[in-house]
């Protein structure tokens, strides 16, 4: 039975032994096999036989047979054929997969048309500039000699020839630019028409970016950038203002904030706990030797070793720095694992934003529901906290078991403070409360939890805010409110807005329309997140320094103080503020 195949092989493969070998494997008949062992080529036949036996055993009985060597064809006389659907793709599934492939392909086409439109605009623009330069050079090359000839011998044959050449160049220039204009118009019209057809056909774009982005920066980073771009696009819907309008609106909002801000001297003031200053040192150590030297927090000529620098800044021996991870990944900021033998605690310090991956974690700013209670949490901080929990919990447990310590401290600055919030929640659930005490300290803590869960962790987490630091007040809900207020002020007009501010600043009575406008400008409208736990605010404007206890609602809007809102966020500022307040109050 192999003779026809062998003949075909010798005729068309030129007696290649390799071709003969693979061709033979492809067409050979499966060998006989037992139910316990077989060659790979007959596995599919054996599975078909076993499915037939299982599928037909309940419908009828067959005369007992003792089978030692079984060919699948031997059962055909006593069993009906059972349809084999396992190895053959379901038609509906196959159709759906082909439909998905088609939609993804059209999505890539849609992305390419948009990219090609931008590329064509740039390309034709460059071509136009280069062509203009070329014709300018040609005109210069002809006009220069013509001017000399006309000066030496007016109305000469050479002069007329050069003039004719100049006219030919001008005609060629006009024809070239006309052709380029027609080509640009036709190209853009074709690309825009294709894009419009795909748009009206509900073809989703983004597949090209997803494919290239995933290959270049990874799936998580690609999804983060795509999500942020969608947020920005949504944020700018309905905003039609110039930069001057925006700056003018921000000034009006700043004046309203200053007139409405309560006096801080009337708030409850507390002595800043010693642990707050101590664990700010541990949090600062996570930045590494290079960043700490740049901020003046470590001597310039100290050893360039992250372990040594972290131990020096934290005030502990080098051997008590168990782990220093300076690299960052998406949803995995740098972190340090310490032993604090003075207070008998295992300490995890998470670094703030230093690398692009950290920034992308910040920008995944949508809210996600909490799993174990009502409320919401910042999606990027939640994901980072969960990944670090899975990564570090075995090391934390090992350190607790080895030392016998029963206290765990999570701390961090900026992004690190937000991730410490999530880690504090996770570790509190994981570690038995009757054995271990879990505490968290966040410095310049971003908005991470909705109001109820943020207040609910006041016993376990402390957030420290210095002055008018913008990060603890900067969130998606706050930015949406700021956008809406700018639109309202822009609609009011510059003159009326200025008059309204004067009434507010002079504490003069407002008419009903002005009261409604003030209510719209001041009262938050969008859902927002807040710093977690007990909030202690440090301020530089009171003599002797102070720490003021604040509620989450006091961080519901961005305070526009350009001289203070950015500088106040740096870790060296927090380190100095914690030290000054502690020494002055104790």
Would you kindly provide a brief summary of this structure?
The chain is of the alpha/beta class and 586 residues long. It has helices at residues 3-12, 17-27, 43-56, 91-152, 157-200, 207-217, 219-235, 243-260, 274-285, 288-294, 306-314, 356-363, 379-403, 415-430, 451-456, 476-492, 494-505, 512-522, 562-565, 571-585; strands at residues 269-270, 321-325, 335-340, 345-350, 367-369, 376-378, 407-413, 437-443, 461-466, 534-538, 547-550.
Q: How would you characterize this protein structure?
A:
With 586 residues, the protein is an alpha/beta fold. Helices cover 56% and strands 9% of the residues. It has 20 helices and 11 strands. The chain has helices at residues 3-12, 17-27, 43-56, 91-152, 157-200, 207-217, 219-235, 243-260, 274-285, 288-294, 306-314, 356-363, 379-403, 415-430, 451-456, 476-492, 494-505, 512-522, 562-565, 571-585, and strands spanning 269-270, 321-325, 335-340, 345-350, 367-369, 376-378, 407-413, 437-443, 461-466, 534-538, 547-550. Helix 14 (415-430) links the parallel strand 7 and strand 8 (437-443). Helix 8 packs across helix 16 (476-492), helix 9 (274-285) packs antiparallel against helix 11 and helix 16 (476-492) runs antiparallel to helix 18. It is elongated and about 105 Å long.
